[in-house]
Amino acid sequence: MIKETKARWLRASLVKIVVSEITFDNKEDQPWSMLAKKRLQQELERFRRQFGDQPTQAFGAVLPNDVLRTLLAEEVGAFRERIYPPLTTLGLFVGQALSPDGACQDAVARRVSERTARGQAACSLNSGPYCKARQRLPLGLIRKLALCVGQKLEQASPRAWKWRGRSITLLDGTTISMPDTVQNQSAYPQSGVQKPGLGFPLAMLVALISLSTGAVRSWTQGPCRGKHTGEQALFRTLMTNLSPGDIVLADRYYCNYFTAALLVERGVDLITRQHQRRITDFRRGQRLGRRDHRVDWIRPQRPGWMDPETYARMPERLAVRETEVAGCVLVTTFLDPEAVSALEIDALYRRRWQVEVDLRSIKAEMGMDILRAKSPAMIDKEIAACLLGYNLVCALMSRAAAVAHVLARTLSFKGTLQLLLAFEQQLRSGAGAGVRTMTAHLLGAISMLQLPIRPGRVEPHAIKRRPKNHPLLTVPRDIARATILNSRCTTS
């Protein structure tokens, strides 16, 4: 009995692992510390190898081990060694976001395959423990890792990928659908034009995306209904992530006085299209060229969302430049025509369309258009996991482009994702020189996936394939189901 009790105590002690750096006064406890650090180090390496995060001569690691270790200590703290420890759960979660299947059962199957390949006992195929592990995973850990990847990519991107050495940020918003549950409806209500029980909860996502690397620099989401929930309100919460010298490209929805004034206050330049309700008269203001002038926008009355102190800082007159190129009127804070010509402004604004392609890649290629989680807390984690996976794919594209001396924007996102999924399991289970060889082949293959150059491409905003001729659901599903059952009982 005494030996069995000691054996149980020993097994219980082995599964307790503390991530944060701990100093041991008792020399007898040092072996357990070394064991914990060794297991953690192996887990860190496996997580980075899974996404091809191997440093090259041009690009360092976007998630170094010290950064991962620090974020684990800050967000997770102490944890037990289970079937699904935090980093393993996060790797499966991000892999689930990248996978075309996207089901929890698929993630569990990959965990079983991984354990059996390493000679460990196979875990249960029940997805319940994995779902509970995802719930324990802190949102801050996923979000900070995604932002860290985006920041490191922007800092490490070569000067040739930028405009005169300045970072260009693309700004846009989109909507995301999710399962129709009571919890999701309370946090993200459905559209007001739909009847209760017939619509789906909607979230508004606003993102800042780097033009040079395609990575998401920052994002925020909120409901599509209610006060202070629009794109501009969400963008104002992201302005602190912009640095002096940045350039923001946005559509005409952001063409207003306060957006331009707040950006100028931060030392950020703006290029946008003229709002359709604003009248442009090139006979007024200071003439800079043909259909190119400098005008002053008058400060409007203080809006309800702005406090009096911030409103007092706003200038009574804001100088902006309005120029027309090829029938399109653009508004910018670049006031000197000798420093930046009208044609250069037009060429920069034409690259704004890249954000539409990026959002399509996030929503269509990664399946974030329709989320799977059934609670708002897991919705936020699922969005963060998808954007972390997207940034890791962009890191692979940037590393491959730097090695091949091409622009990262010329490479195919979908092709990179397909290659990563093909190499993922081998990278995670490999070690040493084998991993470096596979990573080199992976980067070489990605660098050959260059997109064709199609200048002036025009496509109709329409689809050719007709949808199936099914009637629309006009009542809640449970009522429709009861109606069918009642009709069967009546006919029988």
Automatic annotation (TrEMBL):
It comes from the Bacteria. It comes from Candidatus Propionivibrio aalborgensis. This is Transposase. Coiled coil: none annotated. Residues 164-392 form the Transposase IS4-like domain. NCBIfam families: transpos_IS4_1. One of its GO terms (molecular function) is transposase activity. One of its GO terms (biological process) is DNA transposition.
